[in-house]
Amino acid sequence: MSAPHAEALIDLSAVEDNARRLRELAGPAEVMAVVKADGYGHGMLESARAARAGGATWIGVAALREALALREGGLPGRLLAWLLTPGDDWDAALAADIDVSAGATWAIEAVSRAARSTGRTARVHLKVDTGLGRGGPGPDGWPALVNVAARAEAAGCIQVVGIWSHLARADEPGHPGCDAQLANFQVAVALARQAGLHPEVLHLANSAATLTLPEAHFDLVRPGLALYGLSPVADRAAPADFGLRPAMTLTAPLASVKRVPADHGVSYGHRYRTPRATTLGLVPLGYADGIPRHASGTGPVLVSGERHTVAGTVCMDQFVVDLGESTAEPGDEVVLFGPGDRGEPGAEDWARAAGSISHEIVARIGSRVPRRYLGGTADAD
Fold first, then answer.
1. Which end of the chain is less packed: N or C, by CB atoms within 10 Å?
2. Looking at 36, 40, 127, 373, which residue is catalytic?
3. For 39-52, what is each residue's pLDDT tens digit?
4. Has 373 been annotated as catalytic?
5. Do 353 and 278 contact (CB within 8 A), yes or no?
């Protein structure tokens, strides 16, 4: 078998340590480790196990198929899936002992049918829209959802174990919108309790709120990005400022190296022309692997201990780097991003280069790039 054209090295010890640090920062609240989108590109099952080893007592995903895959992989314990649709297999969710979210009356009806079909009481987390404008009803529709849920609970179909919402601007610490959403959430919880519901957990805080808004911690926090050692408030604080460590290092070998003259056009459209005679290196990664095309001409890399920048347009499978007078040779390692131990860029550097966020940079690294796992003490159940 040929060597991989690139590699994403995942430090599971970092994921485990990050989970442990987030548990400390959460105070008395428990931690739900969010491993949706294949663990933000880090590997869903591997990340879940490492997070549990670090003290996370819940695991959270978006899609039901993600939750079912975790169960098929042997992951036990509390597991929430929150983005279910009318076409999902609600029976399978209950059979696999998965908590589900409901943010509309049709969802309560669907999960109640599944409860009657499977003979299992469904564990449900009611979603309220406190100001994000996504899932769940706002103040006008919340009483109806609560009343339908209360009737379903009285009938023995469901147990409302959670009430939750999501913050729109937690990555802007001090923004008044956060206080408004907190107030709206507390009103919604009070209405649910007046209707006779007694949820086990209230949860609102994402990574940013876990790190910067302790009043939003309630019973459970839901860190995603921070679990993987990246800062959700990168304009204010680096991961190390919170005691976090980036877990992914993305590398590739130089596929070719060649000398070219001055004014030599590089890549599609010749958006880059060499300002002098120079050395060009070809990196076998492109937008099909998740390298953002928007980072054409700006994406940073480390080659032979020196920083360089993508020269010209990022292609589907490759991009070019102007290496100047570097003596790099084919096969030498190119580090696109990592924790910074060797002076390499971080995922946040690529996010800035692409006009994006670090969530997207790591989550978009495709399956064509093999993952290699290092460290961690997670159990293999």
1. N
2. 36
3. 999 999 999 999 99
4. no
5. no
